[in-house]
Amino acid sequence: MSGRNRTRRRLPRPALALPLLLAAALTGCGISTTGPRQAGAPASGVQRPGTNAEYARLYFVGPYGLRSASRPTDRPLGPQQALDLLLEGPTDAERERGLASEVPPMNGQLSATASTGTVDVYLPMTIRDLQVTAVSQLACTAAHADVPGSRPPTQVKVRFHENLAPSTSPWTVRCDTNGNALPASE
Questions:
Q1: Residue 1 lies in a domain
Q2: Which domain holds residue 148?
Q3: What does the alpha-carbon distance between residue 155 and residue 116 come to, in Å, rounded to a whole number?
Q4: What are phi and psi of 66, to 5 degrees?
Q5: Which of 29, 46, 59, 139 has its CA 20 to 30 A from that of 130?
């Protein structure tokens, strides 16, 4: 070794920063180059802020299960009027959103009456003749109608009477927050 003292040559700080900035720019922000991903259904059944119009909440079958659709009305609708709208099926705009109905035609024979916290639905058939989604459509549409007693829709009992017979023991359900009919105790 020689006795000469070697001095190290230091790069100025800006010269060190340049390669780091270049490396950061080339690596990107950490987001991969994937395409669009499925995120679920769009929001549905929500009224526009600032509007005070009445609306009927109807339940239809969508690509991701049961979905509510809000239709403007001139007054609050009782269960019979709401179910009559449901039986008409989805509008063109609702069909464009992918909504359909599993409720079969009832030829004007479906009827509904409401009392405090309860809706009685009289079917022209047996409950087993209906798809499970059709029962949920009917129950949730009836529960979200204007029912006396000022209860949340999830607490409204919907009693299905088969073959229009009030004397038979009804099937009692409630509509949960996801729009599904679940058995309820009497």
A1: no
A2: 54-183
A3: 11
A4: -70, 140
A5: 46
Q: Residue 70's CB: how many other CB atoms inside 10 A? A: 17
Q: Residue 159 is encoded by which pair of tokens?
A: 């009693």
Examine residue 80 and state whether it is found in any structural domain, yes or no.
yes
Write the pLDDT tens digit of every residue in 114-172.
999 999 999 999 999 999 999 999 999 999 999 888 789 999 999 999 986 666 789 99
Alpha helices by DSSP H, the chain? 13-27, 79-87, 92-96, 132-143
∠ CA 132-166-109, nearest 5°, is 65
Q: Which amino acid is at 39?
A: A
8 A C-beta contact, residue 71 and residue 93: no
DSSP conformational letter for 153: G
86, part of any domain: yes
Q: Say if 150 falls within a structural domain.
A: yes
Parallel, antiparallel or unpaired: strands 111-115 and 118-122: antiparallel
**What is the chain's Cα-based Rg?**
30
Asked whether 85 and 58 are in contact (CB, 8 A), the reply is yes
Are 39 and 107 in contact by the 8 Å Cβ rule? The answer is: no
